[in-house]
Give the backbone structure.
Amino acid sequence: MENFVFQNPTKIIFGKGTESQVGSEVSQYSKKVLFHYGGGSIKKSGLFDRVIASLTEAGIQYLELGGVKPNPRLSLVHEGIKLCRDNDIEFILAVGGGSVIDSAKAIAVGVPYDGDVWDFYVNKAVAEEALPIGTILTIPAAGSEASIGSVITNEDGWYKRPINYDMLRPKFSILNPALAFTLPKYQVACGAADIMAHIMERYFTNTKDVDLTDRLCEATLKTIINFVPVVLAEPDNYAAWAEIMWAGTVAHNDLLGTGRAEDWASHDIEHELSGIYDVAHGAGLAVIFPAWMKYVYQHDVKRFAQFATRVWNVDYSVWAPERAALEGIRRLEDFFRRIGLPTTLNDLGIVDDRFEEMASKATKSDTATLGGFVPLNQQDIVDILAMARG
Amino acid sequence: MENFVFQNPTKIIFGKGTESQVGSEVSQYSKKVLFHYGGGSIKKSGLFDRVIASLTEAGIQYLELGGVKPNPRLSLVHEGIKLCRDNDIEFILAVGGGSVIDSAKAIAVGVPYDGDVWDFYVNKAVAEEALPIGTILTIPAAGSEASIGSVITNEDGWYKRPINYDMLRPKFSILNPALAFTLPKYQVACGAADIMAHIMERYFTNTKDVDLTDRLCEATLKTIINFVPVVLAEPDNYAAWAEIMWAGTVAHNDLLGTGRAEDWASHDIEHELSGIYDVAHGAGLAVIFPAWMKYVYQHDVKRFAQFATRVWNVDYSVWAPERAALEGIRRLEDFFRRIGLPTTLNDLGIVDDRFEEMASKATKSDTATLGGFVPLNQQDIVDILAMARG
């Protein structure tokens, strides 16, 4: 186990009806907020009105900024920054999924900065302060509700880039599993793939002696594997949604990575895919992750065999660990297909050959590599994309 | 799953040599601190000198208060409160195990209070503020390094009582697994029983649909079960100690109880045992917990069967779940014995029959009950103690 620092002060308010607490939570920080959201789904569901009612009851003024899209755009972030500055807004409330929360984080870190917020995403500048944010989560997937990260897409060149700062963890996140009842099935499945990828990016590590966190990872993965098929069949099963929603937060609040080197190559490759083709992040991960696994598993057959045995109940033979390792990857692919996800670029309808461009964008320079489990150069990434073709 | 709020802002600084960071951490809060510790072991090991060096380097003045005993005493807490008041001390640094940290928390909450701090422990008053504290942990056991709790023993009547306040979570806790190398084997085993009990008090719940936290509990229990025998055989095995130390914190930082009703009857009964007989808390738990299990398992055979199957790898027969349930309890007792713990009152040398007195102290009133899984009245507690006799 490596030395580590772990601190996650986000207040999680979890359960039925908890969105009614948003006003009193926000009022601890500001009496004037930006209410940031995506499309019309929160209006249709009535959530929008409930949030407004709670804010109003707490005497909080709000300005609205809707319109966040999946793979949230820099242009809307710029708009939000201007709105906050022009109106002396000091708190951002994000109501939605990871895209809305990531967009809110970008606005939060952009408001106090003189330059273009994109500077932080391309490592031209280091952020030193940010407005506080709070969230009401409607989609278990990105884990942004308790994470330090924000991923934004710059339409000028379709670059999709992350930043990570401790100060970006939300002050509070309200998680009501019932808000997920109305999600389209495909979005549920994409969220599941994203949650699983957050865990697997941490699981496949070269760090030795990480048994507790291995087991915590496996526990969280099994919860997703067991309950996603349940909510696909019964969209209003609160108990199953509660398991998935809490697992989605635990998967990415940094606990599962404590003391471990993490990888993140699959995420980085996928960011180029969804940046260029605007596919759903989770769908891209369901394609990239199995291909990455097949490409790297021989680097540590034992770890892949443990994954297969403990997560997928693969029968382990001490005489054939590689067989178990490969069977684990196969069951992951089967699972993705079972919940309705693509597992090849072909399934995504991506026939174009922009592999070199993606590899080059992902590594950022010709000599740089991606990931820690097996450092990947541009040719490796091209080979992984070719394996993902199907 | 029940609605819940989870927030744990304690900064965990984990790993080799991390005690050297104590000065810079403390200096974020105060330039004058109470350095609270137990016996001479931290002087023998050199830790005392390293802490002083780090504090001095950071320009921090300190007053010493050593002498904390297992089952920490109210009289020393009173002394600490007076020391802090007389010297305008605004931060308490606890260096030691759970007893030292619990004593520091009691001092922290006593300093700003006009009355006797014991008022909080007997629910005569509610605490509203506390000094901030930080810790350097030397014994993985109590989990106090990230918990809201403090347990103090009042020598006047040998009452052992807990308090729980969010504000008592340490600001930071430094966890260096190497500091545990020199622990006596019996203390290691007692710590293991305490950690396991913290998990099991949460695991045996009546709350339905808590699969994620069930699995996180099982993951953490298995880590203790796998690595405690390793450190008993190889006291300087850093990797194994790291698993145990992190598991000890995760066991009691409230994550594993999210969304679940908890029990705590075994802890409460044990507090009376160790209050009266001054036995080690972990040893008392190793006696009480299996007896409690045998007394209540029929209330939910499935849950005990799951515990047996997932934690102890008991072969499960769908035709005989009760056999699995009982086998799980048997394996827990076997494990406690294997690591050198008593499992009966007889083993502890307790032949005295003060069962009624303990039952009465534990429930506090004749009509009150203890615990949530199966609410226990005084006669139930007497029966459990009788089962524990051996």
Notes: Chain B has two domains: 11-179, 185-387. Chain B has a mean pLDDT of 96.
